[in-house]
Specification:
The chain is α/β, with parallel strands linked by helices. The protein has three domains: 3-240, Aminohydrolase, N-terminal nucleophile (Ntn) domain (Glutamine Phosphoribosylpyrophosphate, subunit 1, domain 1); 242-444, Rossmann fold (3-Layer(aba) Sandwich), CATH 3.40.50; 445-597, Rossmann fold (3-Layer(aba) Sandwich). A hairpin with a 5-residue loop joins strand 13 (220-224) and strand 14 (230-231). It starts with a strand and ends in an 18-residue tail after the last helix.
Length: 604
């Protein structure tokens, strides 16, 4: 969840570190810091809050000539967001930054304190630098001390460490948290926890595997695997397109990304639709041989897209499908049978809980597939097969286009499996493909609709909560709508199946309860409508989203008269995203970086 950067070279080290951290802001953070080793002297700066505070602290700090630097944006896990708890953490002559969680830190800290070590922070990270310096006293080299140190750590980590005893090197270790190293034309070395900070600096990057550790110096990149065997870096070309990561005139990245959905869905479909069926060149049809069940596993927004997929797989592919919350699944001793295709879903491909379930499935001998947006991510490298969603860079913490492209991939995949299993005839598959071609138009934002929602939003700033309700596949969409509102407005919201209202939740109905009702014309309209009427009769304030006007609604957001419920699904999705956005804007919140949240959840 935190961000890491590092640099070895002769350029402006301070600016490279600060620019890199700025590119990682979207991941969420509450403090930041840098440490630079130059001319045998350490300079370290930390600040709580936004990066502008760190920039202010470092305005008089100048880096010239060769230097070694590391930087970090922290999202608090152990210890409150304070300067003392911010990274980098200092030993006697070393600094460290770390993403992840050291599970045995309390035991290590107790041992070190009994030996006279003084700790300044409440963090788990600080034990790393003190443990390293303890080991350094009896080791023949800094590498030996570092190797011993990481062997004593339990948990997930991406670590960068700089020490005066090897003042031209950065030591690194990766286990469970993402990290990569890149080089530029001058052979300068750059570290980061994702691609974004390296774009514009590096031409080639190496993605570290779990268990990799070693050091980087001006003339070498030395990597060892988890067994201590030396290995060569495997460089791949890094994209140089940074334009998509800019706001392009929109108020927020989230707003830009809502508007981008039409284009990215076009990219998702590109080369994958034919008149006869779905083309996934990245899949071997044998992946589905002997498969009688699909199990989907994800967290957050990706869980909602997976829940949507259960309706599509069972309705069209006629295959038993279930969905699991990854953080629960990994701890409940699940039964995993080899006739099950295990599918994980993650925007980043680094979500810690989901990644662990993938490892469980692999260990159990199941076939595995990942639906992901980031090539070369941990999940993509681990799974048997991968379908990339092609959503592009998503900087808003509250996911929008990732959800849209995930659902689009699942719709296509349901047709792909339906053809393999002959559960749909050619005519129906062709009909579904024709509908898919219309989705980019369905997700194009109408200025009229956006302006209507902007005006409407002022009525939904108070009250004691929101119900988002829908039936069938519109139930997971209701869950996603509620999540979006919670994430960026901090208002209480719940998603429910419409038919569940009378089984308890309707007790909350009154004028201060806002109900956002999804009423698709082409799927269970009358049944959903009757559920909303029950709420209306009890004075709940109703906002209906539908192609058909609803006379019991206090507010009405019209969508197009579509041919099929899936087109209604995507159009309603955009409406829910815009409604959450505009409510949050009116409340004066930071839409792109909501409090307490991070973009990539790389700790459990």
């Amino acid at each position: 969840m935190c961000g890491i950067v590092g640099y070895i070279g002769k350029k402006n080290t301070k600016e490279i570190l600060l620019e890199g951290l700025k590119e990682l802001e979207y991941r969420g953070y509450d403090s930041a810091g840098i440490a630079v080793l130059q001319h045998d002297n350490f300079e370290s700066y930390k600040a709580v809050g936004k990066l502008v505070n760190l920039e202010e602290k470092t305005k008089d700090f100048i880096t010239q000539d060769f230097a070694v630097g590391i930087g970090h944006t922290r999202w608090a896990t152990h210890g409150k967001p304070t300067e003392l708890n911010a990274h980098p953490h200092l030993g006697e002559s070393s600094y460290v930054v770390h993403n992840g969680i050291i599970e045995n830190y309390a035991k290590l800290k107790k041992e070190l304190m009994s030996e006279g070590v003084t700790f300044l922070s409440q963090t788990d990270t600080e034990v790393i630098v003190h443990l390293f310096e303890k080991n350094l006293k009896s080791a023949s080299s800094a590498l030996e001390a570092f190797t011993k140190t990481i062997s004593q750590l339990h948990g997930a980590y991406a670590i960068l460490l700089v020490t005066k005893s090897e003042d031209e090197s950065i030591f690194f270790a990766k286990h469970g948290s993402p990290m990569l190293v890149g080089i530029d034309a001058q052979n300068d070395k750059y570290f980061a926890s994702s691609d974004t900070p390296l774009i514009g600096h590096c031409t080639d990057v190496n993605y570290f595997e779990d268990g990799d550790y070693g050091y980087v110096s001006p003339n070498a990149i030395v990597i060892f695997d988890k067994d201590g065997n030396k290995k060569n870096p495997r460089f791949t070309k890094l994209t140089q397109n940074k334009l998509s990561a800019q706001k392009n005139g929109f108020r927020f990245f989230m707003e830009k990304e809502i508007y981008e959905q039409s284009d990215v869905i076009t990219d998702t479909l590109l080369g994958r639709l034919s008149d006869e069926g779905i083309v996934f060149d990245e899949l071997d049809a044998s992946l589905f041989d002997g498969i009688n069940e699909i199990k989907l596993c994800a967290c957050g927004t990706s869980y909602h897209s997976a829940l949507s997929a259960t309706y599509l797989f069972e309705r069209y592919a006629k295959i038993k499908t279930s969905v699991e919350v990854a953080s629960e699944f990994r701890y409940r001793s699940p039964i995993m049978s080899k006739d099950t295709l295990f599918v994980v879903i993650s925007q980043s491909g680094e979500t810690a809980d989901t990644l662990e379930t993938l490892k469980m499935a692999k260990a159990a001998g199941l076939k595995t597939l990942v639906i992901c947006n980031v090539d070369n991510s941990s999940m993509v490298r681990l799974a048997d097969a991968c379908i990339l969603t092609r959503a592009g860079v998503e900087k808003g913490v509250a996911s929008t286009k990732a959800f849209a492209t995930q659902v689009m991939v699942f719709w296509m995949l349901s047709m792909y499996v339906a053809k393999l299993k002959n559960s749909l005839d050619a005519k129906e598959i062709a009909k579904q493909i024709a509908l898919m071609r219309q989705v980019p138009l369905s997700t194009k934002v109408s200025d009229v609709t956006h302006e209507h929602i902007k005006r409407l939003s002022k009525r939904y700033l108070h009250g004691h909560g929101f119900f988002f309700i829908g039936r069938d596949i519109f139930y997971p969409l209701a869950l996603e709508g509620a999540l979006k509102l919670k994430e960026i407005s901090y208002l209480h919201a719940e998603g429910y199946p419409s038919g569940e209202m009378k089984h308890g939740p309707i007790a909350l109905a009154d004028p201060e309860l806002f109900t956002i009702a999804l009423l698709p014309q082409h799927l269970l309209y009358e049944k959903a409508k009757s559920n909303v009427e029950e709420l209306s009769a009890r004075d709940s304030t109703i906002c209906a989203i539908s192609a058909l006007e609803f006379d019991k609604a206090d507010d009405f957001i019209p969508i197009s008269s579509c041919q099929d419920y899936m087109l209604e699904f995507f159009e309603m999705m955009v409406v829910l995203q815009l409604l959450s956005l505009e409510i949050s804007v009116r409340l004066g919140n930071d839409v792109d970086m909501p409090r307490n949240l991070a973009k990539s959840v790389t700790v459990e």
